[in-house]
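wait is this the right file?? whatever heres the structure
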């Protein structure tokens, strides 16, 4: 038998308040007198929604906040979010429980249920992040990988770089960029990696599941007082030798993405962890041209299986494209002109830390 409490007349506005919280969290907009909701109301909404996370989008796109969760039930928002069936099956019970107070046993389910991309399998888990996930550092290397055509064709390896490994620089905007950073390839098709930086691993010797929060520890400098880093994590598919020799690009799957404006590098020390940076967005500071900085860039959490024989690839640029990034596109401002350098030597060992889950 279901029971219900008297509904709060503002319940219908809770999604709107949570959306405002999301905008403020990601963009750095500071709450003030123009806010539709008080700080306490937004905190209440944040608390109610804290159980949410997304295998692709993370804390700020319908995702939890990284703080301790008061509820033992977590929902995954994923690529079925725009399907009516998903809302009726997964979200309607959530709304009934938290907005209407209906006792529908929703909170009795597994604490976490994941959809593992690459396997099309749902899996229940007792916590998030997964305690059994072990973080493995994949270091950006000079390369070449010999597997893709890009500005640098860098490598990606679990072996750390040597002390004298040279850095990688690129200038922007690139003269070939057509739609954001996408160029037209020799075959006349859009090519999203030909004129950006890539760091690609050797073919994987076994399947690797990556599930959890991800951070890129990037050592970089610029000849400008500000820059930005837009990072993509991708799975690069195998390609036959003949196609590679003809200059064709290997196919790939975008797995996740992260971004950071250099002047907004200051972290909120009360919320950040070694693997989950939170930025204040309240104290932008220019960078000194030529100085090497460490930027901890959140790459949004995933649940993904990289297949044996495939490669893990990191892409770095200061722009993206509506052709490949849809609503996550960052407009390219005409003042973005300069040269950035990615450092990957022993003293500045840039790496992406991936949560690898042991395979049964």
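ok assuming it is, sequence goes like this
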């Amino acid at each position: 038998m279901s029971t219900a409490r008297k509904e709060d007349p503002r319940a219908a506005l809770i999604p709107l308040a949570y959306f405002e919280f999301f905008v403020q969290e990601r963009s750095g907009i500071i709450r003030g007198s123009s806010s539709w909701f008080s700080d306490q109301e937004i905190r209440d909404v944040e608390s109610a929604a804290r159980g949410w996370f997304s295998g692709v989008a993370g804390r700020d796109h319908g995702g939890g906040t990284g703080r301790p969760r008061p509820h033992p039930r977590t929902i995954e928002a994923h690529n079925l979010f725009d399907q009516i069936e998903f809302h009726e099956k997964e979200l309607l019970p959530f709304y009934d429980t938290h907005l209407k107070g209906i006792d529908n046993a929703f909170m009795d389910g597994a604490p976490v249920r994941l959809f593992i991309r690459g396997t099309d399998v749902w899996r229940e888990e007792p916590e998030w992040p997964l305690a059994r996930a072990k973080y493995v550092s994949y270091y950006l290397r000079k390369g070449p990988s010999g597997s893709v055509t890009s500005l640098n064709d860098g490598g990606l390896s679990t072996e750390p770089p040597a002390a004298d490994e040279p850095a990688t620089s690129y200038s922007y905007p690139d003269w070939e960029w057509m739609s954001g950073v996408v160029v037209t390839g020799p075959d006349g098709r859009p090519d999203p990696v030909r004129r950006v930086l890539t760091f690609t691993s050797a073919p994987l010797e076994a399947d690797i599941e990556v599930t959890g929060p991800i951070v890129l520890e990037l050592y970089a400098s610029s000849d400008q007082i500000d820059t930005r880093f837009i990072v993509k994590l991708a799975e690069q598919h195998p390609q036959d030798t003949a196609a590679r020799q003809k200059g064709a690009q290997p196919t790939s799957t975008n797995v996740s993405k992260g971004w950071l404006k250099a002047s907004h590098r200051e972290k909120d020390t009360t919320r950040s962890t070694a693997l989950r940076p939170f930025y204040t967005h309240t104290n932008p500071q220019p960078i000194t041209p030529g100085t090497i900085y460490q930027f901890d860039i959140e790459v949004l959490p995933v649940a993904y299986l990289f297949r044996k024989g495939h490669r893990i690839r990191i892409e770095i640029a200061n722009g993206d494209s509506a052709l490949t990034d849809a609503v996550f596109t960052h407009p390219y401002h005409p003042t973005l002109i300069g040269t950035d350098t990615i450092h990957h030597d022993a003293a500045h060992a840039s790496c992406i830390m991936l949560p690898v889950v042991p395979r049964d």
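The longest helix spans residues 84-99. so i think its the right one actually
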